[in-house]
Design goal:
The complex is a heterodimer of chains A (483) and B (485). Helices cover 42% and strands 18% of the residues of chain A. Chain A has helices at 39-42, 53-65, 163-180, 220-239, 285-293, 299-308, 314-320, 324-337, 340-358, 369-380, 386-397, 404-411, 419-432, 434-442, 445-462, 469-482, and strands spanning 3-14, 73-74, 77-80, 90-93, 103-108, 114-126, 130-132, 141-143, 150-156, 192-202, 212-217, 247-252, 257-263, 273-274, 281-282. With 485 residues, chain B is α/β, with parallel strands linked by helices. Chain B has a domain at 6-253 and 457-484: Amidase signature (AS) domain (Amidase signature (AS) enzymes, Alpha-Beta Complex), CATH 3.90.1300. Chain B is built from 17 helices and 11 strands. An 11-stranded mixed sheet of chain B has the order 1-3-2-4-6-5-10-11-9-7-8, with helices on both faces. In chain B, helix 2 packs antiparallel against helix 3 and helix 10 (302-317) packs across helix 13 (369-392). Chain B is globular. Classes of the chains: A alpha+beta (483), B alpha/beta (485). The A-B interface holds A 39, 42-51, 78, 80, 82, 84, 87-90, 142, 269, 271-273, 276-279 and B 79-80, 86, 88, 93, 96, 98-100, 102, 197-202, 204-206, 232-236, 312-313, 315-316, 318-320, 322, 324-326, 336, 340, 360, 363-365, 368, 372.
Chain lengths: 483, 485
C-alpha cells in the first residue's frame, strides 16, 4: 500500500526579551542555577505576575509577519499540573483566546518550489524550569533560571507531508523569528523546540490516521530523523495489522528512535481557566499598525526581490535570504560592488567555503562585506583577474591587509593589460620554447586549441599571475599563428 | 489607651501625652497578659514593634508629622512580612518567611506605623468562624464561648479586645465584614482593585481584597488612604486617584437615598439582628436619608456561584504548596508522588482540602461548562443586580450576617457555615465596596450593619458610616476585661 505522511508542528520559540514574561528577572542563558529566578519565578506565596509588554509586541510582530489575524482581545489562562520545575503548579499560557490567530508561512521545498503551511494560532506562555537528573545521586535538582522565560508557541495545521517539508517549515519559522529579531533562534540552547505530530494514512484517504506526538525535538536534523523513524514505525505497525495508539513519544538521538512517554489515558486534565491575576490583553488598531511599521523586510519578501528584481536564480535567492545575517551581508556586498550575480557567487562560493571550513557565523566573518565588495569591484573593473582575486581574498581572511587595494598594491597583483609588456613576455616564452613552438606550428587547428594552454600557462607564470588572461590568449595566438 | 481610636491616639502622640514606645509597650503587655484566652495573634513581634516605635518617636522629635507615624496596628497573617513568619493560619506555611513584604505592609511601614504582630485567621482565609486555623480557634472578646467570625477573626478580636487600635484584614466573601460585625468593630472591604494584592497570600484571586478593620469609620478612612492605590506589581489594581477620604466624612446625609434589598431581610434572618438593623435605618432617616426597598433578584445564586469560583481559583492558587521549594515537606518521601501526596495531606487542614477538591472537580474536563462557566455567568448577573439597584439609590443597607456570633463548635456542617456569608458574598462577586459598622447587640454579642456602595464609592460609604457613628455610640462600646480574663 502507498502511505501518506501527515505532520503538524508545535514550535516553542523563546522570545528575546531582556526580562521574563511576568517578572523583572533576567532571561540570559547559562547563569549559575537559580540565580535568575526572583520571588515571582519561584511562585512564592502572595506574588503576582505583571505582563512584559515586550513579549506582547514580539508576538504581534510575528503575527503580522505571517499575515495572521490579531484579535482585539486575548486572554491568559492557567494550565494546571504538578511538576517540580513548574513552581506555581500551573503554567500561565493561552488557550481559548490566543494573541495570534490564523496565518500562514511560505516554505521553500527541495525543488525550489514553494508551499503554504497554515498556522492555526500562536500563543504566549511562560517556560518552566529545568529538572536536572544527573549529578544528584538518585535525586533530582531543579534550576528555575528558565522559569518564566517568554515563549511563543506556534501551532501549525497538519499541512506537511514529509520530514523534509517539516524541516523546511522550521527553517522558514527560524528565518522569520530571527529576521524579526524576536528570538536568537539558537536551537542548541533551546531557543526553538519542536513537538511533532505525526500520522500516516493510505494515499487518497481523506481522514487522518491516529497521531503520535514526539516531544521536544531540538534540531533540524533530529526533527527529520525523528519523523522518518516514526513514519516507518507507524507504517510497519499498520502493515502488520496493528493500530497506532494516540500517545506522547520521546525522540532519543543516541539510539535514533522514538519511544512511548505516556498514552492518552495517562494524559493530564490541565483544568484550564482564565488567570485571575492578569487582565485580558486588549490591542487596538493603532497599536497593531505601530507594530507593523517596525517590521523589517521579511525572508519571503527578500527572496522574491532577490529573484525578481536582482535576477538571481531561485536557488541563490533562497540561500541568500535564508538568514538575516546572510541577507544583510549579501546586500552590503552588493551595495559596494553593484553586481548582484558576482556578489551572490562570492558570498556563496569563496566566503561560505571559508566560513564552513572554520565554522564561523557569517556575522563574525573576518572579511567584512565592504572589503569583499571592493574586491569584487576590482575584478569587475579589470584591475585584477580572478586568480589574483582569490589570493586577495585569502589575504583579507588572514588579516594580512586592510583592503583589497592595499593588498593588490603591496603584492603587485594589478593585472597587466599593457600590450607591449605582454608581448615582450610572449616573445621571451616563444624564444625559450623552440620545441613546443615547432610542435604547435605543425599541428592542425583542432590540436592547436589544446596546445596553446601550455604557452598561456608559461606567460601567466612569467607575469606572476598578473597578465590579463584574455589578452595573453589573443596575442599568443596571433604570434604563434604568424609564422 | 487601649480603647482609644487611631484618631485619638494620633492626637495623643502629637500632643506629647504619650510616646509611641509607651503606647506600643502598653499594648504588647496587654497582649501578653490577655491574649492567651483569645488567641488573636499567631506571632507577636515585640522587638520589631519597639524598634519601629522608637524610630517613630525619634522621627517625630526631628519634626516628622506623618499622621500615622508611631501608631500601632496588627496585620492578618496572610500578608507577607519580610523576615517574619507568614503562616496564613496553616501548618503548610508554619515555617515560611517571605523575603519581601506585601505592598500594603510596605505602605504602612513607610507611613511610620508600628506592627505589633500577625493575627490569627482561618486557614488560607477559608472559613467564617476562625475555627479552621492550624493555630487554634480565636475566641470572641465579647463572649468567650462565641466565635469571632472569620476569616479575619484574629484581626477583629485583637481590635475588639483592645490589643491593637486597628488591623489589616482581607475579604474574599465577607472575611472583613462578618468578623467586624461579630466583634463590634468597623471593617471595610474596598472595591476590588482599590488596594494592592501583592504580597497577600492568594485564596481566590478575583475576589480577594485587603482592607482596614478599626474602631471607627474615621479610622478606616485614615488607613484606607494609606493603603489604597495603584501598584505596578498588581495588574488588577486600578490606576485611579485615591481621594482624601477624611475630607468626605462630614458631608451631611440629607437626601441620601438608601435601598434595602428585600432579599437581605427574608427567611433565615435572626429577629434580634433584623430589629437592630431596622433601628439603624431609622437613625439614618432621622439624619435626613430617604429609604426604599429594592431587589437584588439573583441573591439566592450568590453562595452557589461563589462556592464554584472561589474553590476553583483556590485549587490552582494552592498548587504551589507541593513540598518542593518552601512550606511543609513530609519526612522521607520515597518518590515524587509520595512527596506531593503526604506533604499536602499533612500540611493542609480539612476545609482547605475540601475546597481544593471542589475546585479541582469544577474545573475538570466535562464539568467546566456546567460549573465554572455557569458560575461566571451568574456572577455577571449578580453584578448587574447591583448596578441596576444603584440606578435607584446611593447606598444599600442590610445585616452583615444573618445571626450574631454563634457558639464555638456550633457549625459542624460546612454548608451551614457557608450560609453565614449569604449577605456578604455577592459583594465580592460584584467587586463593589462594603463596610460593616456596629449597630447593636443581641445579649452580649454585637450586631453589624452592612452598607454597600458603587464601585470606588469608599468615600461615600465611610461618610455614611461616620455620620451614623456621630449619631450612635455602638462603636464606642468595649468588652470588659472580665470577659477577656
Amino acid at each position: 500500500m502507498q502511505w501518506e505522511t501527515v505532520i503538524g508542528l508545535e514550535v516553542h520559540v523563546q522570545l528575546a526579551t531582556q526580562s521574563k514574561i511576568f517578572s523583572g528577572a533576567s532571561t540570559a542563558f547559562g547563569a549559575e542555577p537559580n540565580t535568575q529566578a526572583c520571588a515571582i519565578d519561584l511562585g512564592l506565596p502572595g506574588v503576582l505576575p505583571v505582563l512584559n509588554e515586550g513579549a506582547v509586541a514580539m508576538a504581534v510582530q510575528f503575527g503580522l509577519a505571517i499575515n495572521a489575524e490579531i484579535p482585539e482581545t486575548s486572554l491568559f489562562e492557567r494550565k494546571n499540573y504538578f511538576y517540580p520545575d513548574l513552581p506555581k503548579g500551573y503554567q500561565t499560557s493561552q488557550m481559548a483566546q490566543p494573541i495570534v490567530g490564523k496565518g500562514e508561512v511560505e516554505i521553500l521545498l527541495d525543488d525550489d518550489s514553494r508551499k503554504r503551511v497554515r498556522i492555526h494560532h500562536a500563543h504566549l506562555e511562560e517556560d518552566a524550569g529545568k529538572s536536572l537528573h544527573e549529578d544528584f545521586h538518585g535525586m533530582t535538582g531543579v534550576d528555575l533560571n528558565r522559569a518564566g522565560t517568554p515563549l511563543l508557541e506556534i501551532v501549525s495545521e497538519p499541512d506537511m507531508r514529509s520530514a523534509r517539508e517539516a524541516v523546511a517549515y522550521i527553517r522558514a519559522l527560524h528565518a522569520i523569528v530571527t529576521y524579526l529579531g524576536i528570538s536568537d533562534g539558537n536551537m542548541a540552547e533551546g531557543s526553538m523546540r519542536c513537538d511533532v505530530n505525526v500520522s500516516v494514512r493510505p494515499k487518497g484517504q481523506e481522514t487522518f490516521g491516529t497521531r503520535a506526538e514526539i516531544k521536544n525535538v531540538n534540531s533540524f536534523r533530529f526533527v527529520e530523523r525523528a519523523i522518518e523513524f516514526e513514519v516507518e514505525r507507524q507504517i510497519e505497525l499498520l502493515e502488520d495489522g496493528g493500530k497506532v495508539v494516540q500517545e506522547t513519544r520521546l525522540y532519543d538521538p543516541d539510539l535514533d528512535e522514538t519511544r512511548s512517554m505516556r498514552t492518552k489515558e495517562e494524559a493530564n486534565d490541565y483544568r484550564y481557566f482564565p488567570c485571575p491575576d492578569l487582565l485580558p490583553v486588549m490591542l487596538d488598531e493603532a497599536y497593531i499598525e505601530h507594530q507593523r511599521a517596525t517590521l523589517p523586510e521579511l525572508p519571503s519578501e527578500k527572496r522574491d526581490r532577490f529573484e525578481n528584481t536582482l535576477g538571481l536564480s531561485a536557488y541563490d535567492a533562497g540561500v541568500l535570504s535564508s538568514t538575516r545575517p546572510m541577507a544583510e551581508y549579501f546586500e552590503a556586498v552588493l551595495a559596494v560592488c553593484g553586481d548582484a550575480k558576482q556578489a551572490a557567487n562570492w558570498v556563496q562560493g569563496e566566503l561560505s567555503a571559508h566560513l564552513n571550513r572554520e565554522n564561523i557565523d557569517i556575522g563574525n566573518s573576518p572579511v567584512t562585506p565592504e572589503q569583499l565588495g571592493e574586491l569584487i569591484s576590482r575584478v569587475l573593473d579589470d584591475t585584477i583577474n580572478g586568480k589574483a582575486a582569490k589570493q586577495v581574498f585569502a589575504a583579507l581572511w588572514n588579516n594580512e591587509g586592510t583592503s583589497a587595494d592595499e593588498i593588490i598594491d603591496a603584492r603587485g597583483l594589478k593585472q597587466v593589460t599593457d600590450t607591449g609588456a605582454i608581448e615582450a613576455m610572449i616573445d621571451q616564452v616563444i624564444a625559450e620554447s623552440p620545441v613546443q613552438v615547432a610542435q604547435y606550428r605543425e599541428a592542425d587547428e583542432a590540436k592547436r586549441g589544446k596546445m596553446i594552454g601550455y604557452f598561456v600557462g608559461q606567460v601567466m607564470k612569467a607575469s606572476r599571475g598578473t597578465a590579463n588572461p584574455q589578452q595573453v590568449n589573443g596575442l599568443l595566438k596571433q604570434k604563434l599563428d604568424q609564422a | 489607651m487601649h480603647q482609644m481610636t487611631l484618631t485619638e491616639l494620633a492626637k495623643g502622640i502629637k500632643a506629647g501625652d504619650f510616646s509611641s514606645r509607651e503606647l506600643t509597650t502598653s499594648l504588647l503587655d496587654r497582649i501578653e497578659r490577655l491574649d492567651g484566652d483569645i488567641n488573636s495573634f499567631i506571632t507577636v513581634t515585640r522587638d520589631q514593634a519597639l524598634a519601629a516605635a522608637d524610630a517613630a518617636d525619634q522621627a517625630r522629635a526631628r519634626g516628622d508629622d506623618r499622621p500615622l507615624a508611631g501608631l500601632p496596628l496588627a496585620i492578618k497573617d496572610i500578608f507577607c512580612t519580610r523576615g517574619i513568619r507568614t503562616s496564613c493560619g496553616s501548618k503548610m506555611l508554619d515555617n515560611f518567611q517571605a523575603p519581601y513584604s506585601a505592598t500594603v505592609v510596605e505602605k504602612l511601614e513607610a507611613a511610620g506605623m508600628v506592627s505589633l504582630g500577625k493575627t490569627n485567621m482561618d486557614e488560607f482565609a477559608m472559613g467564617s468562624s476562625n475555627e479552621s486555623s492550624y493555630y487554634g480557634p480565636v475566641k470572641n472578646p465579647w463572649d468567650l464561648s462565641a466565635v469571632p467570625g472569620g476569616s479575619s477573626g484574629g484581626s477583629a478580636a485583637a481590635v475588639a479586645a483592645g490589643f491593637a487600635p486597628a488591623a489589616l484584614g482581607t475579604d474574599t466573601g465577607g472575611s472583613i465584614r462578618q468578623p467586624a460585625a461579630f466583634c463590634g468593630i468597623t471593617g471595610l472591604k474596598p472595591t476590588y482593585g482599590r488596594v494592592s494584592r501583592y504580597g497577600m497570600v492568594a485564596f481566590a484571586s478575583s475576589l480577594d481584597q485587603g482592607g482596614p478593620m478599626a474602631r471607627s469609620a474615621a479610622d478606616c478612612a485614615l488607613l484606607l488612604g494609606a493603603i489604597a492605590g495603584h501598584d505596578l506589581r498588581d495588574s488588577t489594581s486600578v490606576a485611579r486617584v485615591v481621594p482624601d477620604y477624611l475630607a468626605e466624612l462630614d458631608t451631611p446625609l440629607a437626601g441620601l437615598k438608601i435601598g434595602l434589598p428585600k432579599e437581605y431581610f427574608g427567611d433565615g434572618l435572626d429577629d434580634e439582628v433584623e430589629g437592630a438593623i431596622r433601628e439603624a435605618i431609622g437613625t439614618f432617616e432621622s439624619l435626613g436619608a430617604k429609604v426604599c426597598e429594592v431587589s437584588l433578584p439573583h441573591t439566592h445564586l450568590a453562595v452557589p456561584a461563589y462556592y464554584v469560583i472561589a474553590p476553583a481559583e483556590a485549587s490552582s492558587n494552592l498548587s504551589r504548596y507541593d513540598g518542593v521549594r518552601f512550606g511543609h515537606r513530609c519526612d522521607n518521601p520515597v518518590d515524587l508522588e509520595d512527596l506531593y501526596k503526604r506533604s499536602r495531606a499533612e500540611g493542609f487542614g480539612d476545609e482547605v482540602k475540601r475546597r481544593i477538591l471542589i475546585g479541582t472537580h469544577t474545573l475538570s474536563e466535562g464539568f467546566f461548562d456546567a460549573y465554572y462557566r455557569k458560575a461566571q455567568q451568574v456572577r455577571r448577573l449578580i453584578r448587574q443586580d447591583f448596578l441596576d439597584a444603584f440606578e435607584e439609590v446611593d447606598v444599600l443597607m442590610g445585616p452583615a450576617a444573618p445571626t450574631p456570633a454563634f457558639d464555638l463548635g456550633a457549625k459542624k456542617d460546612p454548608v451551614s457555615m457557608y450560609l453565614q456569608d449569604i449577605y456578604t458574598i455577592a459583594i465580592n462577586l460584584a467587586g463593589i465596596p462594603g463596610i460593616s459598622v456596629p449597630a447593636g447587640f443581641a445579649g452580649k454579642r454585637p450586631i453589624g450593619l452592612q452598607i454597600l456602595g458603587q464601585h470606588f464609592a469608599e468615600g461615600q460609604l465611610l461618610n455614611v458610616a461616620h455620620q451614623f457613628q456621630q449619631a450612635t455610640d455602638w462603636h464606642r462600646r468595649h468588652p470588659s476585661d472580665q470577659e477577656t480574663t
